[in-house]
Amino acid sequence: MRAVVQRVSEAAVDIGGERRAHINTGLLVLLGIEAGDTEADLEWLCGKIVRLRIFADEEGLMNLDAQQVMGEILVVSQFTLHASTAKGNRPSYIRAARPEEATPLYLRAKQRLGELLGRPVRSGEFGANMQVQLVNDGPVTIIIDSKLRE
Predict the structure, then answer these.
(1) I need a surface site. Which of 35, 63, 97, 129 has the fewest CB within 10 A?
(2) Verdict on whether the full-model pTM lies above 0.85
(3) Separation CA 35–CA 1 (nearest Å)
(4) Where does the pLDDT of residue 149 fall: very low under 50, low under 70, confident under 90, or very high at 90 and above?
(5) How far is 7 from 5, CA to CA, in rounded Å?
(6) SS3 of residue 71 by DSSP
(7) How many C-beta atoms surround the C-beta of residue 127 within 10 A?
(8) How far apart are CA 121 and CA 34, in angstroms?
(9) pLDDT at res. 88
(10) What is the mean pLDDT of residues 66-89?
């Protein structure tokens, strides 16, 4: 699993011109699921996301996590995070999990993030054409990969 985590002052997802989800201060998580990802990948990644200390404390240092600032999470599926551009100019998505494998893991990740955060997580819709808006605060953008564990 791969996630692009952005610290936001607000973020929203629209589908078909309709607002599907909106958050204020928190994390926008673009989540890509790779073929062969497991519950262990999910558990590690979700824990890492919720515990990321990327919010400013009283001294302006990034020492606080989303729970400590009462932050929200908006998770959006994004298979293109597993694109390969090794050959030619058209990306290959062969590493991305097929929907029948990815959908349950995406839904479980949303649930697990909510459990760890202690409140419901907002989301887009798996496989939908979404318009994502955000105000990246900082900017702060972190890439996390469960296979690399870095």
Answers:
(1) 129
(2) yes
(3) 9
(4) confident
(5) 7
(6) coil
(7) 12
(8) 22
(9) 87
(10) 93
Q: Establish whether 80 is a catalytic residue.
A: yes
First to last CA, the chain: 12
| pLDDT computed for residue 138 by the predictor | 94
Q: What's the CA gap between 129 and 16, in Å, rounded?
A: 8
Q: pLDDT class for 79, splitting at 50, 70, 90?
A: very high
Measure Cα distances from 139 to 6, 29, 60, 75 in Å.
8, 14, 14, 18
How many Cβ atoms from other residues are within 10 Å of residue 36's Cβ?
10
What is the residue whose two structure tokens read 């990815």?
Answer: 102
CATH class of the structural domain 2-145: alpha beta
The answer to whether residues 40 and 105 touch, using CB atoms and an 8 Å cutoff, is no
Q: Looking at residues 41-61, what average pLDDT do you find?
A: 96
The SS3 assignment for 74 reads strand
Residue 79 appears among annotated catalytic residues:
yes
**Which member of 25, 38, 67, 79 is catalytic?**
79
Is 68 marked active-site? no
From 6, 25, 67, 80, active-site residue: 80
The tokens describing 35, both together, are 């073929």
The pLDDT of residue 150 is above 80: no
Cross-strand pairs, 48: none
